[in-house]
């Protein structure tokens, strides 16, 4: 029979365990409530957009939706998305094969060259190509040769493809690096030719990677605003902005809902095509494809892509730095405050996004419940919805419900950035949370450390790298965001992207030179984050 003291000690230990379990339950409840609040705030702009659309009279809404103009816009938007996706695959997959499965010299160099266009906003490329070709363009001025202007739907397809194919290149390359190359060698020993081996062995293995990159390219194409606007292509994003600018908010809201529907259909299609079925992973090395006499044409092909996407825009904007043609436009003259405003807004967005991401990512990483998964996925809504739609929804929210919030400007604009790019912070923070060893936290709790002290001294330092990485990604993407900035920017608070827009609108391209070059430099920092996470 145990002494009374043993029973007393066992009782106290049991009470201690129960207290810890109770504290854990309370902590999870608080995290769930905070995550629910963040998810509600992120999704709320969509409610106002749907509400605005329902205020349109049914007969008028029907006439607007089935009008010939709406049909033309829908056709152009879908055509743009499909062509950009197809051409991105035709560029990205061969480049991925060249840099991973062949004896192409200096594969790391060509990998960087092929991936770098991703960090340059497509609308900067659009301005460069618009100023390069056509009568009075750079080619005409320097060489006296008039090349047809790059504009319209075909111009938008070309420019967006050149700056989105890296999505397919990077995801396909990752799939190629992770698959077992010996499977291809086995197929070759059975007298399968290179094309047949690719079709029957390699393609089924890398199909999910191709589908993932194609989805990103398709979503970028259907949601891009700057390039179609600069190329004067009638698609959903540019039309929504022009209708909003002309106070036709009913038509803009209906178009926005149709655009959301197309995005949803794309996501459903990708879920079926990109499903991972019987993919064999491995690290076995296989033989590389010998290029032989095709080695130099292959290097020339990659070099030409890099020249078009990187050298040409930088050269064009650098040349415009020293041009002073035309009447001066004082409002577009570069001022340091433009860069300061961009950095200030991006920093605020990054800080708020990290604060919002923390409870969502921590709750999702520490709990495997259905509620945690739903709340985490809800934060991705703003990232999947085009920026012009987010801007329009927040205009409705601000003008109809929170007019003082809308007039103040900065807070609503920062909130729009957070809604748009919050998933970048949630994803990186959640990855860090998943790597925390439960035993480490439990050890701190056994030393009578409270929940807040354990989080401050143990958890926060462990997830800080992910928090910083997420903040940096939000900062960089906020710097480049065009439609949200144009629609919600406070009066008199010009930024780099708004000056670029103003220069293009006035056809005074030289004023876009300094802001564009600054954005290229800042955007290049995102590639450092990407390359540090990938082992080439």
UniProtKB/TrEMBL annotation:
Kindly give the SUPFAM superfamilies that the UniProt entry links to this protein: MetI-like (SSF161098)
Q: How does it sit in the membrane?
A: Multi-pass membrane protein
Query: Is-annotated flag, keyword Ribonucleoprotein?
Result: no
Q: Which residues cross the membrane?
A: 30-51, 71-97, 109-133, 153-170, 209-231, 251-273, 294-322, 342-365, 377-398, 458-479, 511-531
Quote a single Gene Ontology cellular component term: plasma membrane
Mention one GO biological process in which this protein takes part, according to its record: transmembrane transport
Under PROSITE patterns, the record lists: ABC_TM1
Instruction: Write out the annotated subcellular location.
Output: Cell inner membrane; Cell membrane
Organism superkingdom: Archaea
Q: What is its main location?
A: membrane
Pfam families xrefs? BPD_transp_1
Q: Which residues form the ABC transmembrane type-1 domain?
A: 74-272, 339-530
Does the entry feature the keyword Cell membrane, yes or no? yes
Q: Which Gene3D superfamilies match?
A: MetI-like
**CDD domains per UniProt:** TM_PBP2
**Keyword set for this entry?**
Cell inner membrane, Cell membrane, Membrane, Transmembrane, Transmembrane helix, Transport
Which family does the similarity line name? Belongs to the binding-protein-dependent transport system permease family.
This chain's protein is named Iron ABC transporter permease
Instruction: Say which species the protein is native to.
Output: Natronococcus amylolyticus DSM 10524
